[in-house]
Amino acid sequence: MLLRRGGLHHHRHLTLHAATTTTSAVDDLLTLFIPSAPRINPLHRRKTLARISRSIKLSLLPPFEPAACALLASEMVPEALSALRHMRDLSQTPSLPFHNLLFRSLFDKGDVFSLLRVFRDMVAVGPAPDHLAFEALILGFCRRGDVGRAEALLWLMSRFGCAPGVVAFNMVINACCVFGRALGAFAIVCAMAETGCAPDVVTYNVLIGALFREGNVGEAKKVFEEMMESGVEPNTRTYNVVIDGYVKMGRLKDAVLMFDEMTQRGLSPDCYTFNTIVAGYVKFGQEGEVGHLLKEVLRDELFSEELELDVLIARMCWDDRMDEAAEILRRSLKDDNGTPSILAFNSVITAYARLGFETEAFELYRSMVEAGLSPSASTCNSLLMGLCRNGRLREAGVLMDKMVKRGFCISKTAFTILLDGCFRVGDRSGAMNVWREMERHGVSPDVVAFSAFINGLCVSNWMDEACEVFEEMLRRGLFPNNFIYNSLIHGFCNDGNVSEALRLEKEMRKNGLQPDIFTTNIIISGLCKQGRFKSANDVFMNMCDNGLTPDIITYNTFIGSYCKALDMVNAVSFVNKMSLQGCEPDITTYNIWIDSLCRSRMMSRAVKMVDELVSVGVVPNTVTYNTVMNGVCEDVLDRAMILTAKLLKMAFVPNIVTVNLLLTHMCKQGLTERAVMWAERFSQVPLTFNETTFNILDRAYRDLEWTGGIRGVEQGRSSFMEFLMHITIDYMYELSHPKSRSWDIEDVLDYGFGELPKAIEAR
């Protein structure tokens, strides 16, 4: 066992290491906090206070603390600090609640220097910090990712007569897990037990979640079992964490077993439980099980009456039955049985926005406001996300501007969504503008915002800029997590610089981060792309030693790489390994084999495999369609027509890759002039061209200069390519013009936002 005394032997070195580093950190922290600082120029202080007095009549508000609190409430933090210094000059001792409020404000502004100075003054002249003050500081540093300072404060508490409690320990343990320092979290748990503070259900929930995120299912199960053996009863949150971990690992049967165990213990599942399992069914092609799950929870009355409506609404949204869900909500508003919850409205608004039906999303939002429900941060973020994911950045910008002008609190999440939206359409300058706007509005970027920014730059192959932002993040005192390192490693691997990627992996370990399954898969992919299969296999063999279990992505990477290298022996070998591991093939695995068949000109077998996919319940995706379409274009004309007829029966969604391969084949077959004409038509859909599209068109224009157009093309082949172009552009036109999109965001926001209380959540 990991946490109990009898099971700590192999973790003893962690505890000793933590004790050694903690003593050093505490001494360093005391040196930082307590030394006497140079006095501020009294003349400068008097001028500052005089300016404040003129602006808010501060001198007429004795004592000063209420005025300082009012300044903090108005987000005038520098002025509040000046008022605090004036109180100190008058030998007034500000209260502990005021200091706690000031700490939160300083953390929100990112002013760590002033915060440390205020804490140093508390230590030197009072009031002595109590456990609430320490917990406010620990929470702030944990949110910034400064886990080392938070842990040092934890051990510093006892020197001021405040024995750290389970709340303070849980904050640091959670921060360690969030920022990829799970080993440090377990070391703190060991030290926690030695202080006589027992872990509670929150502690166990955090540890179990961290182990699942690392892919360490075996240890997660051990901690879960140990939790119950130690007399700590799991709650709904515990089971939600375990169910979510199993679903993300693709182990749906285990997730359902935990759901059954949860209900047998008399615990009530919530909407998160239901949505997690449904998401797993949808992701892994088992949509038929969703209806059975819903019937079961309703039959056994597992939800309260209030939650039953939320679950029904969520179920309809998963089935894309948003119109029915919205109608149920509107009827509920007219009934006298109570107002539906904000969660129910958010489910439908998010579903509409996700599918691009912004009119319906805003109309339901309007109904929600008229019913007297205040939107949550999730409501507005869902509207923003829907706009951004559909490339409607202008409307998203208008929405943000309206929110700012009307005095709403704009969270970091909202800016992060807009930032991600810009990168999705390749608008780097727009992303830079969003980043500057975030700073201008006083929203200090956190680790999540930096993660989105760095990941966007890496995906766009702007590695120099990504490294500069990474350095800026470090200068601000924020600590990178696994996601940031994985983004950089992925970017360097895509750029062909695997040596730099491996250096970053070593840096991760040096900084106390444990590379996860995503890190390992990225490095394996980078090595395989360079043909370094021996090195990739060495990494694969070392996975178990590092506590990692290969997943479907690991196997697909090897299978796909060996197929491209025409090494079918090793490809089949990894298929067998995957089967022995109990890892079921997914649509990506099948796409790899279909691509191999198409490359070998075995088109009939490729299409037959597609037919078999449908029969076994695996849904073909756009990659499947593009792969087969590419083979069809190169096949014999008569057979290509037959295969195309089969493809039309598939529910495919063409994308820019489809357009690029069709343009390429038209140019290859001498239809260069027609390819240019079709490109012009696709640009009016509208369709955002990528770098590959522009390269195809550049070659087409050069070819036209030399040949002047069509050169000896078979008439039947020409008509066939025109037919493929027609059906593709028709599909893409329907996708870009979904139902009822004729609305003016200015009018919607003038109506909806004008009547809202200024109470949108900032967190």
Task: Report what the structure shows.
There is one protein chain. This protein is an all-alpha fold and 763 residues long. The protein has a domain of 110 residues. 71% of the residues lie in helices and 0% in strands. The chain contains 41 helices and no strands. Helix 5 runs antiparallel to helix 6, helix 23 runs parallel beside helix 25 and helix 29 runs parallel beside helix 31. The radius of gyration is 30 Å and the shape is globular. The two termini are 37 Å apart. The N terminus and C terminus are likely disordered.
Properties at a glance:
single chain, about 775 residues, mainly alpha, globular, disordered N terminus, repeat, PPR/CCM1_RNA-binding
Number of strands: 0
> What structural class is derived from the secondary structure elements?
mainly alpha
Global Rg: 30 Å
Helix content: over 70%
Output the number of helix runs.
Answer: 41
In whole angstroms, the N-to-C terminal distance is: 37 Å
Biggest β-sheet strands, sense, barrel:
none
Sheet-strand content, in percent, reads under 5%
Poorly predicted spans: 1-62, 739-743, 747-763
* Mean residue pLDDT: 73
Overall body shape:
globular
Keywords: Repeat
Pfam families: PPR, PPR_1, PPR_2
PPR repeats: 130-164, 165-199, 200-234, 235-269, 341-375, 376-410, 411-445, 446-480, 481-515, 516-550, 551-585, 586-620
Helix-strand blueprint:
Blueprint: H1 12-33, H2 42-56, H3 64-73, H4 77-89, H5 96-109, H6 112-125, H7 131-144, H8 147-156, H9 166-178, H10 182-194, H11 201-213, H12 217-229, H13 236-248, H14 252-264, H15 271-283, H16 288-299, H17 305-318, H18 322-334, H19 342-354, H20 358-370, H21 377-389, H22 393-405, H23 412-424, H24 428-440, H25 447-459, H26 463-475, H27 482-494, H28 498-510, H29 517-529, H30 533-542, H31 552-564, H32 568-580, H33 587-599, H34 603-615, H35 622-633, H36 637-647, H37 656-668, H38 672-683, H39 691-707, H40 715-736, H41 745-752
Helix pairs in contact: 1-8, 1-10, 2-4, 3-4, 3-5, 5-6, 5-7, 7-8, 7-9, 8-9, 9-10, 9-11, 10-11, 11-12, 11-13, 13-14, 13-15, 14-15, 15-16, 15-17, 17-18, 17-19, 18-19, 19-20, 19-21, 20-21, 21-22, 21-23, 22-23, 22-41, 23-24, 23-25, 25-26, 25-27, 26-27, 27-28, 27-29, 28-29, 29-30, 29-31, ...
